[in-house]
């Protein structure tokens, strides 16, 4: 990720979790714990986040209220088309829905090789006019000479906040990897189009927190993220320092690359990895989340991070059962899963015959693994 993208991400995190309280009229100042996916922003919030974009041509200003990082699956902007200006636009990588809220103007549809005035259709726009660009239509957008035209726009895939039109009026599509694309293949679609976090497991999981998700601890805020490949090495380091059964560094990096959907990394305010969960859905058991490994840094072990990470994963995936294998001598893990079952109000069942030590090769010194099954969750 570029330095500019990192700076935008830091501004976004700060504003998402620390702002928006100024407009609270009444109620619980800590309302976010009741509605973790709710977003409310003023124009001043958007400015402080660095999300007001001036076109290089000077013909428009875009106030980007909702961006890719918010996890809604689309972005939402309020754009001012400057009076007496015309802008060539060709969204080859996006679809856009537009509502005119004030001012007036025109939209001229044209073929990509046509210039302004050569288009095949011109429509008048005014307050309440709506148009949708669902087929990569090339067009010119003009505001009347006497006043600016204000429009509200929704984009899919969502923009990340840095985009400006190129010489052809095209926005690049920016994926979850932070890389801008002026064209993309079918294999890259999953990086660009993702369902909202709160709906990934269906409507029943609508209370699941979107990522990144911030929790307060006695040592300061901790942000929960879907891991990226660059998180694999610090996760391996944390596993080693925590005394866990250590796998190869490649294994952790591979999980971050191929199983990020079912893994979680916890980072301190400084960006240090202080915890993680690695797991998967067992084959044929879509209602079950198997916890393969969970770790918390030694300084953070009295911050309830392990339980919180398990709860976030359970709610995000919308599963009915959470399972984990534990060796008989691992008292800490047994306490964690017993405590999680009690806090969730669910029964805990232990299958002591799940993986006997006889399954391991003689030289592996493997211990029996008891399967802990928590659920069903309500």
UniProtKB/TrEMBL annotation:
Q: What is its EC number?
A: 2.3.1.178, 4.2.1.108
Question: What Pfam families does the annotation carry?
Answer: Acetyltransf_1, Ectoine_synth
GO function term, MF aspect, one: ectoine synthase activity
What UniProt keywords are attached to this protein's entry? Acyltransferase, Lyase, Transferase
Question: Membrane spanning segments where?
Answer: none
The pathway it acts in is: Amine and polyamine biosynthesis; ectoine biosynthesis; L-ectoine from L-aspartate 4-semialdehyde: step 3/3; Amine and polyamine biosynthesis; ectoine biosynthesis; L-ectoine from L-aspartate 4-semialdehyde: step 2/3
Q: Which reactions appear under catalytic activity for this entry?
A: (2S)-4-acetamido-2-aminobutanoate = L-ectoine + H2O
Which positions fall inside the N-acetyltransferase domain? 222-364
Q: Which residues form the signal peptide?
A: none
SUPFAM superfamilies for the chain: Acyl-CoA N-acyltransferases (Nat), RmlC-like cupins
InterPro entries membership:
Acyl_CoA_acyltransferase (IPR016181), Ectoine_EctA (IPR012772), Ectoine_synth (IPR010462), GNAT_dom (IPR000182), RmlC-like_jellyroll (IPR014710), RmlC_Cupin_sf (IPR011051)
**What processes in GO biological process is this protein linked to?**
ectoine biosynthetic process
Q: Hey, which family's this protein in?
A: Belongs to the acetyltransferase family. EctA subfamily. Belongs to the ectoine synthase family.
Identification of the protein by name? L-2,4-diaminobutyric acid acetyltransferase
């Amino acid at each position: 990720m570029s330095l500019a993208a990192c700076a935008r991400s830091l501004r976004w995190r700060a504003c998402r979790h620390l702002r928006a309280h100024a407009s609270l009229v009444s109620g619980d100042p800590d309302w976010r714990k009741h509605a973790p996916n709710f977003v409310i922003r003023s124009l001043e919030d958007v400015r402080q986040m660095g999300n007001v974009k001036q076109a290089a041509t000077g013909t428009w200003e875009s106030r980007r209220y909702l961006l890719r990082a918010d996890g809604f699956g689309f972005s939402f902007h309020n754009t001012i088309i400057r009076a007496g200006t015309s802008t060539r636009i060709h969204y080859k990588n996006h679809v856009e829905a537009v509502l005119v809220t004030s001012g007036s103007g025109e939209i001229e549809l044209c073929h990509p090789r046509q210039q302004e005035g050569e288009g095949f259709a011109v429509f008048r726009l005014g307050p309440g006019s709506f148009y949708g660009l669902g087929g990569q239509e090339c067009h010119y957008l003009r505001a009347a000479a006497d006043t600016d035209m204000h429009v509200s726009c929704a984009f899919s895939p969502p923009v990340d906040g840095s985009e400006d039109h190129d010489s052809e009026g095209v926005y690049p599509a920016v994926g979850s990897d932070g890389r801008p694309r002026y064209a993309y293949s079918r294999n890259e679609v999953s990086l660009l189009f993702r369902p909202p976090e709160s709906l990934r497991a269906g409507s029943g999981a609508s209370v699941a927190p979107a990522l990144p998700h911030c929790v307060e601890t006695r040592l300061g805020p901790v942000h929960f993220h879907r891991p990226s490949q660059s998180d694999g090495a610090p996760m391996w380091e944390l596993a080693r320092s925590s005394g866990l059964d250590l796998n190869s560094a490649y294994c952790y990096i591979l999980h971050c690359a191929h199983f990020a959907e079912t893994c979680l990394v916890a980072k301190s305010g400084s960006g240090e990895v202080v915890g993680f969960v690695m797991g998967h859905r067992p084959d044929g058991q879509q209602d079950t989340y198997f916890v393969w490994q969970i770790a918390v840094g030694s300084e953070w072990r009295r911050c309830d991070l392990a339980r919180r990470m398990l709860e976030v994963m359970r709610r995000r995936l919308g599963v009915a059962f959470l399972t984990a294998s534990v060796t008989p001598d691992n008292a800490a893990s047994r306490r964690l899963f017993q405590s999680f079952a009690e806090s969730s109000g669910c029964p805990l069942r232990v299958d002591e015959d799940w993986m006997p030590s006889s399954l391991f090769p003689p030289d592996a010194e493997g211990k029996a693994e008891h399967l802990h099954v928590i659920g069903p969750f309500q």
